[in-house]
């Protein structure tokens, strides 16, 4: 019976550690970028206030899972931490990545 209890405890601890690992968010400050607004455009700076991505966007949000949603003209797209557009601005509205997924609004008829 003691052997079964140890086995159950092991499985329980393993399951809990997997569950908590899946729910972890990026907590490190290293490499974190913050949107900032100057002269009518948005860019990104590091914690020390150094400009990392030059202001060039009409709208910007924080990074999530390595990507940030930015507005170019009236459309939203995504950039990486180097400022490179990885998903072309084509969305009427868009949100942050969460667990590898995102929600965006794409209209094709000209009406939202």
From TrEMBL:
PROSITE patterns: PROKAR_LIPOPROTEIN (PS51257). InterPro entries: WG_beta_rep. Transmembrane segments: none annotated. Residues 1-23 form the signal peptide. Keywords: Signal. It comes from the Bacteria. This is WG repeat-containing protein.
